[in-house]
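Limitations

Structures in this collection are predictions, not experimental determinations, and the ligand pose is part of the prediction. Treat each record accordingly. The example that follows, with EPS as the small molecule, is included so readers can see exactly what is and is not provided: the inputs are given verbatim, and the output is the predicted complex.
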Amino acid sequence: MLRFLTSGESHGKTLIAFLEGLPAGLPVSISAINEELARRQMGYGRSNRQKIEKDQAKILSGIRHGTTTGAPIALLVENRDFSNWEYVMSVEKLNGLDEKAVEQLEKKSIKQFRPGHADLAGTVKFRHKDIRDVLERSSARETASRVSIGAICEQLLNYFQVRTLAHVIQINDVRASVDTKALSFDEIDTRARKSELFCLDDASAEAMKGRISDAWQSGDTLGGIVEVIAEGLPIGLGSYTQWDRKLDGRIAQALMSVQAIKAVEFGDGIACSAGPGSKAHDPLYVGAQGADLPFQRVTNHAGGLEGGMTNGERLVVRAYMKPIPTLRDGLDSLSFPDFQPARAHYERSDVCAVPAASVVCRAMVCIILTDALLDKFGGDSIYDVKANFDQYKEYCRELRKALAPEATRQKKD
Ligand code: EPS
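Predicted complex:
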């Protein structure tokens, strides 16, 4: 079983992450991790915090000479902003405060809840005396840890020719007018990587930027939709045999755990719920000789998952992000600890973090897919995993070979 944990506060000294359960012998590129961290910091509409941070993962254990050892991996990402928060985030009890410390503590104290954030429930639940104890850990800054872990997992997936990408399909009410079903993996990936907003359609991206500028002017924030795609997945990752082994459920949980994600959709799940069964499912036909799988699909409404398992088609999952709840003018709220009417607290914040969320969502999908792949093919060494994987691929090819050549039928439109 793959396990990972993160630790760290938004303005504390560092973010920490642990990853346990990778096989030994996987080559890991640190620069590939740092490239993903840099992408997470991109996107039009981010706060000035991103000018301070230059996220880099420092691997502390579990990798030697560029290769996993099978031991737990520990890594850290420094918060450069910590130098401005030394007193506020001090681990030691503060005694005999000087003027600078008193000023910093007063300036950074939070006395009003932000509706939509974890502030209210978190403060009550943990009986905190300071809302900051909630804000610091509930902040999306923590996603830098997840992206680091996801970027390591992605390298395991790539080892097995499984590729993943993410792109932005909507910001506010502007939807990219691109049908990704008609595009190859490489086309989608290349176009997303060229765009400042990771959006495939330049005209929509310009309109999205306009919406973000307007929101910034008016002190508002914007949400949107991101799509994660995975290709090259073997058939049968996940399982139908128990509720918590279902891969769609596990991916949905992982995506819903990303800050501000409020809904998840696989394939054409939402549209299909309004139509008949005859239009909702994906007819099968026999694939060409030499193909990895004997079965092909006319459509992919299921988004690559049936019965909680991969079915060999492209995995397509969308995550819906609400607008960030930290608003410049604040909503009507209550003060703490006296619960009097007050405007919500405002602290420097992003106007729109949808592009960043696409990087985080891809990382989460990579983590869950890696776990599912190791669950099916796992071994202590990458060579054991590869042997199991290759043997299963061969079994799938044999299924096709057993069919008469004339069994191949043309794909219907
Ligand atoms: C966040 C609030 C802001 C964001 C932060 C997430 O923090 P700050 O007040 O320090 O600017 O910038 O995101 C990051 C720091 C990051 O690296 O993504 C929140 O409340 O979730």
